[in-house]
Automatic annotation (TrEMBL):
Stretches of the chain forming a coiled coil according to its record: none
Signal as UniProt keyword: yes
Official protein name in the record: Extracellular solute-binding protein
SUPFAM superfamilies associated with the record: Periplasmic binding protein-like II
UniProt organism field: Nonomuraea phyllanthi
Higher taxonomy: Bacteria, Bacillati, Actinomycetota, Actinomycetes, Streptosporangiales
Length: 454
């Protein structure tokens, strides 16, 4: 895969971030709109330099040049995003002014008061206001106790409902299996049975995988989603403990064990060549992959054989409650210790509501985070139109993943889940024992987090 494809959504590595561990679309006016606070220069016309930590394939050199040309009193000192370096900068008095961050998992950083509340800016901005934002941004909200309410501490740039499915119709036809519905969700149990029928093996090797679940990227989010779909809970009321021995949790863990033991998709015991589903899917060696709307951005320049056969399906369900959340929700925040918050807000307006946001919406690499930009999502190609229609219907089930301030999201959970699921897959322990071990280890991390935050 290209760097763009990998860096766009490498969920496992990226989710360990510290602070994680959207009127007519404004164009030229976005970057120069007043926030109701100071302008782009300090007294006497002095140029302000913003330190920005982001991904260079997301905030490009062209974006930076365009922003600077529209704001001659502001220059950008760009630093490629690096989680370790960010942690050190946030802990010092040298915090960046504008930083890439994830909505899901932001509770920990917000509880530590690492980010700036954006409501004063949102209330006064003419181009980026609360009523413009889709509900996915609520995962960036924090009221001092939990996410989803209170001030906004970040804004999502784009997102996907990451449990949705992409599949290759041609592989279904070859296996003489009815394609997945593009309107009605399949159950996880049905999905696994379909994957078994689609899987082809020869000489002890897998020629075609029936299903990929991006195991190497994220376990916490899909397992959390499964628990919520059954009406279960990931945390207790004050977010200080988890219980992965409940019937809902054990059912989710067992599905992953059954998936791995069936050999229908890549796992740590049978890894994908490059740690991701895309190359297998493009090579027609994977029939279904569990990836969000963003995955469709990969197909625009592929062959007609790919473009004419791919389709998107709703997120599968486990239980009676249909929930289809985002696993991350990448965006940006302004650190509490930023030196130039007003100027950073101008960049926020430009990036989230100006030309870069239109580019993202039209690209198909994610769902816009602004209500006004939904119609910009690509529909030129047949597969894009189908995916757009499926995605629009899926929006009503977006939901929200739980987020404890005492633990990072995927970055903290994934190693624990992976370790004990592998043991259960190899039959070293039972699923019940795995659930108990996961509970004990995660609760230890939660206790440590609570002690650190107080």
């Amino acid at each position: 895969m290209s760097d763009r494809r990998m860096s766009r959504r490498h969920l496992l590595a990226s989710s360990a971030l510290t602070v994680g561990a959207a009127a007519a679309t404004p164009l030229l006016g976005a970057c120069s709109a007043s926030s109701g606070r100071s302008g782009g220069t300090s007294g006497g016309g002095k140029v302000v330099t913003l330190t920005v930590m982001f991904k260079s394939d997301e905030l490009t050199k062209e974006h930076i040049a365009d922003f600077e040309s529209r704001n001659p009193g502001i220059k950008i000192n760009f630093i490629e995003y690096d989680g370790t370096r960010l942690n050190a900068m946030l802990a010092s008095n040298e915090a960046p002014d504008f930083v890439r961050g994830a909505a899901v998992g932001s509770a920990s950083g917000n509880a530590q008061e690492l980010a700036t509340a954006l409501d004063p800016y949102l209330d006064k901005s003419s181009v980026l206001r609360k009523e413009h934002l889709l509900p996915v941004n609520d995962s960036f909200r924090w009221d001092g106790r939990r996410i989803g309410q209170g001030p906004f501490y970040g804004i999502v740039k784009d997102w996907s409902q990451d449990a949705t499915l992409w599949y290759n119709r041609a592989l279904f036809e070859e296996a003489k299996i009815e394609p997945l519905s593009t309107t009605e969700p399949v159950s996880y149990d049905e999905l696994l049975e379909i994957a078994k029928k689609l899987t082809k093996k020869s000489g002890g090797k897998t020629q075609v995988y029936g299903l990929g679940v991006e195991w190497a990227w994220n376990l916490w989010a899909p397992i959390s989603t499964m628990i919520l779909q059954q009406g279960g809970r990931l945390y207790n009321a004050d977010l200080t403990e988890t219980d992965m021995t409940t019937p809902e949790a054990l059912r989710a863990l067992k599905w992953y064990v059954d998936f791995a033991q069936a050999g229908v998709g890549p796992t740590p015991l049978d890894p994908a060549p490059d740690g991701a589903d895309l190359s297998l899917f493009l090579a027609r060696r994977m029939a279904i992959t569990q990836d969000g709307y963003w995955f469709g951005g990969n197909f625009v320049e592929e062959s007609d054989e790919i473009k004419n056969n791919v389709a998107m399906a709703p997120a599968p369900v486990m239980g009676d409650k249909r929930i289809s959340p985002t696993y991350v929700g990448w965006g940006a925040f302004i650190p509490a210790k930023a030196q130039h918050k007003d100027e950073a807000w101008k960049l926020m307006e430009y990036y989230m509501a100006g030309p870069p946001s239109e580019e993202r919406a039209k690209s198909g690499w994610g769902i816009p985070a602004l209500k006004s930009q939904m119609s910009l999502m690509p529909q030129q190609l047949p597969y894009q139109k189908q995916a757009y229609e499926t995605q629009q219907a899926e929006l009503q089930y977006a939901g929200q993943l739980p987020d404890s301030p005492y633990i990072g999201a995927a970055g903290a959970w994934n190693p624990v889940l992976d370790k004990h699921l592998q043991r259960a897959v190899k039959k070293e322990i039972t699923v019940e024992a795995a659930g108990k071990a996961i509970t004990d280890e995660v609760n230890k991390l939660l206790r440590q987090g609570k002690e650190q935050i107080g």
